[in-house]
Amino acid sequence: MNMRILTLLIALVLCVGIAPPPVQAQGGPLRIVIDQGVIEPLPFAVPAFVAESAEASRHAADIARVIADDLAGTGLFREIPQEAHLTRVTSFASPVQYADWKAINAQALITGAVALDGNGRLTVKFRLFDVVSEAPLGEGLQFGGPVESWRRVAHKVADQVYGRITGESGYFDSRVVFVAERGPKNARQKRLAIMDYDGANVQFLTDASSLVLAPRFSPDGGRVLYTSYESGFPRVYLMDIATGGRRALDEQPGSMTFAPRFAPDGRRVVFSISQAGNTDIYTLDLASGQRRRLTSAPSIETAPSFSPDGSQIVFESDRSGSQQLYVMPDGGGEPRRISFGQGRYGTPVWSPRGDLIAFTKQNKGRFHIGVMRTDGSEERLLTSSFLDEGPTWSPNGRVIMFTRETAGTQGVPALYSVDISGRNLRGVALQGAASDPAWSPLLP
Questions:
Q1: DSSP letter string over 3-43?
Q2: How far apart are CA 264 and CA 268, in angstroms?
Q3: Which residues of 234-355 form beta strands (DSSP E)?
Q4: What's the pLDDT at 5?
Q5: What is the reported pTM?
């Protein structure tokens, strides 16, 4: 199914008269410092946004709800429900009644207004306040776009709030490509699908006529690499999301291609080729079609992933006798092993921040999602279950999404996410089975 990327014309404009210089409370402005495995979620309030036109009334409450869900879903924030509010916000220009918000222990307050013109253009403006210091946190901002993109507008507001309070970039205005599954375990149909990060707005990119695996976003979020069995053998395909156009990459008779990922510049692809009983890692220049072999060993080398600066590649290999993780220069060369714990390691993915590598680990009959430093130190296991696999990073490197499958012949895969501290394990709300998630960068 063809899909058009929604074009959101975003105006980040100063809302007139609402942004005096922020006043710092004693001890500094409101801020969550994310440096521990356990924190007390920050209580916040989001009153229903003010509808500045009759047409906007049905979107005002929905936008406030998505913002609240985004923030509460991080585990870093705790929403104070609207029924506990002591005051209603009836005008975007009204002064904040700080005493009423302090009385219910709110530390952050988000107010906003929504308008919809006759051309179907939505305008949302918002303000963020530090209730304790009785001061705005940053300037008021305004976002605009077509009415059908109202969820994107809400995610953008939530990203702004998240960033101002945590000091990190957000991840809500992003998408996830995944494999939607249907049918019994021994005859399951698989289709490529795409959704908002929270499971909303699911759209299918392929039909169920052939098996598909391991979709991966391009750095600009406009293209997807994936593996398809439509020819009878695994082969890597490149799809343009906006047009639905696609093409096979590096068609070589007698070979199988799989496990693709983009280089950070978007001009090259790294993937595995299995030929004559040997599996090695190659890169392919998308413009010229020039292929370069990076590994040459009588072992299985697969699941490559570039570092954010493009200088290194992490991959899995059984060259040591068991499945382990290795890092090599982007042009090939002697790899160095970085995994040394008990068990088997696979599906490594470099963090967007460049400081960590996520992986799947199998040990003593259990599967885990874990992270380690890029030299293999400070390994931490974040999950444990019958089958957890295939991590993918949020755009800000704070959250990992992965596949979790239940045991037995009726076992079903589903998508979950977890914070890199190991906190806030959550299922993604989807209808039907799903696997192989890959997170996009923030949308433009």
A1: -PPP-------PPTT--PPPPPPTT-S------SS--PPEE
A2: 8
A3: 235-240, 246-248, 255-262, 268-275, 278-285, 291-293, 301-306, 312-317, 324-329, 336-337, 344-350
A4: 24
A5: 0.91
Give me the helices (H) in 139-212, please: 150-166
Cα gap 273→249, rounded to integer Å: 11
For residues 308 and 302, what is the distance between their CA atoms, to the nearest angstrom? Answer: 19
Distances (CA, A) of 296 to 90, 271, 272, 426: 68, 14, 12, 40
Pairing between β-strand 388-393 and β-strand 399-405 as defined by DSSP bridges: antiparallel
Cα 380 to Cα 372: distance, rounded to the nearest angstrom: 6
Here the tokens at position 212 are 């598909």
The DSSP call for residue 320 is T
User: How many Å apart are CA 344 and CA 286, to the nearest integer?
Assistant: 33
Supply the pLDDT for residue 277. Answer: 87
Q: Please report the sign of the dihedral spanned by the C-alpha atoms of residue 294, residue 300, residue 306, residue 311.
A: negative
CATH fold of 42-166: Rossmann fold (3.40.50)
Topology of the domain covering 176-439: Neuraminidase (2.120.10)
Output b/e per residue, 218-243; b: 16+ Cβ within 10 A. bbebbbbbbbbeeeeebbbbbbebee
Antiparallel, parallel or unpaired: β 42-45 and 77-79: parallel
Q: How far apart are the C-alpha atoms of 88 and 79, rounded to whole Å?
A: 16
What contacts 216, CB < 8 A, 6 or more positions away? 177, 224, 225, 226, 260, 261, 262, 438
The Cα–Cα gap between 259 and 270 comes to: 8
φ, ψ of residue 152 to 5 degrees: the values are -60, -40
Q: Quick one: pLDDT at residue 409?
A: 81
Strand 50-51, strand 108-116: pairing: parallel
User: Taking the domains of the chain in order of start, what are their residue ranges?
Assistant: 42-166, 176-439
Give yes or no for a contact between 327 and 314, defined as CB atoms under 8 angstroms apart: yes
* CA terminus-to-terminus distance, the chain: 22
CB–CB of 421/398 below 8 Å?
A: no
374: buried, middle or exposed (CB in 10 Å: 19+, 13-18, 0-12)? middle
- How would you class 375 by CB atoms within 10 Å of its CB: exposed for 0-12, middle for 13-18, buried for 19 or more? exposed
Q: How many of the other CB atoms lie within 10 Å of CB of 111?
A: 23
**Backbone dihedral region of 257: left (phi > 0), alpha (psi from -120 to 50 degrees) or beta?**
beta
Stretches where the chain sits below pLDDT 50 are 1-27, 38
